[in-house]
Amino acid sequence: MVDSERRPQTIVFVRHGQSKANVVLQAEKEGDLSGYTPEYRGLANADMELTETGIQQALAAGAWIRAHINEGYFDGYYVSSFRRAQQTAGYLQLPEPENEAIWNIRDYLREQSWGYFDSLPRHERDELFPQIAEQRQRDRLHLAPLGGESTFDLVFRTKIGIIQTLYRELVDGRGIAVSHGNLLWAARIVMEGLTAAMYEELDNIDNPLDKMQNCQILQYTRVDPHNPQHVARNFSWMRSVCPWDTSLSRNEWQEIKRPKFTNAQLLEGV
Question: What angle do CA 223, 226, 231 make, to 5 degrees?
Answer without folding.
Answer: 25
